[in-house]
Amino acid sequence: MKILLLNGTIVGKKTRTLLEEIDKYIEKLPQSHDTKIIDLENFEMQFVDGRPAEQYNEDMQTLIKEVEDADAYVIATPIFQGSIPGTLKNLFDAVSPLAMRYKPVSIVANGGTLQHHLVIENQLKPILNYFRCMVTPNYVYTHTNHFSTQGELIDEDVRNRLKEMTRVFNQYMQMSQEIEPDK
């Protein structure tokens, strides 16, 4: 399966660190998967305004294609001002509502307060439910204290939760292959 590990921000390194950790766990799964980490900071994003995808710049077209062509996703997001970053929402706005249907998604997030985990429940999950994704129930929320001052993951409990999330994500990927496509 083609797994897109999407870093939904243009600033900071903690979400990238989480995706790199998950990528290691995916490599250890019994089945072989094609993973790709995409950092939104490496793309010149345009504001989505409803025009057809082919009218956006090359970077936006590439991002849309990467999302739409993936079979499964791990979405990493920081929480800013009690919300997901506008860059991540903008990308969702560019993607066809049918593109992510019945595809597995796991979520990892990082925030400055422990209460910001609710952003996943109140903002990100409803968006993914709109796309009819198969969202794993065990997302991983991290706090600044789970990282060193250099941005390295230092919390063993978080590592264990990421491993468990990857295990469940793998089961969701297997289930998704059994779903009959729409006709």
Structure report:
This protein has 183 residues and is of the alpha/beta class. The chain has a single domain, classed as Flavodoxin domain (Rossmann fold). Helices cover 38% and strands 18% of the residues. The chain contains five helices and six strands, in the order βαβαβαβαββα. Strands 1, 2, 3, 4, 5 and 6 form a six-stranded parallel β-sheet that branches. β3 (72-78), α3 (86-94) and β4 (104-111) form a beta-alpha-beta unit. α1 (14-27) packs across α5 (156-176). It is globular and about 45 Å long.
What order do the helices and strands come in, and which of them pair?
Elements: E1 2-7, H1 14-27, E2 34-39, H2 58-69, E3 72-78, H3 86-94, E4 104-111, H4 118-130, E5 134-135, E6 140-143, H5 156-176
Helix pairs in contact: 1-5
